[in-house]
Design goal:
122 residues; mainly alpha; 0% strand
Length: 122
């Protein structure tokens, strides 16, 4: 499957799931970017998608000041995690990074899938 096909599938899955994380990450991984470029592209995807979401929520008056401040408070732990991940990424070879990346993606997908069907979470 080439990049165009994966991009199309990514767009459909993003629209169906309402999540830009898994479809986008799988697309970026599928086009074979080296580990540093992959992480940079994921950062760009997450940033642009989050800004778009914030603008859409703000436009509908669904993003309150309180929620905005809570979200802003999550930036510091995220930056710390990125710094730790950067150090780890520099130390492992490309093939090991790919393996860890795919196993982690499968694990995150497997634990999030049941949450979609749990009636207690809404």
């Amino acid at each position: 499957m080439d990049g165009t096909a994966f991009g199309t599938v990514n767009g459909v899955l993003t629209g169906l799931t309402g999540s830009f994380v898994f479809p986008g990450v799988l697309y970026l991984q599928a086009i074979g970017l080296p580990k540093d470029s992959l992480v940079q592209a994921m950062g760009m995807l997450f940033t642009s998608s989050t800004v778009g979401l914030a603008l859409a929520l703000g436009g509908q008056q669904l993003l309150t000041t309180r929620l905005g401040l809570l979200s802003l408070g999550a930036v510091l732990p995220a930056v710390i995690g990125m710094m730790l991940g950067q150090q780890l990424r520099r130390r492992i070879p490309e093939s090991s990074f790919r393996r860890v990346f795919l196993v982690s993606s499968c694990f995150l997908g497997s634990i999030s899938w049941p949450c979609r069907f749990n009636k207690d979470t809404g």
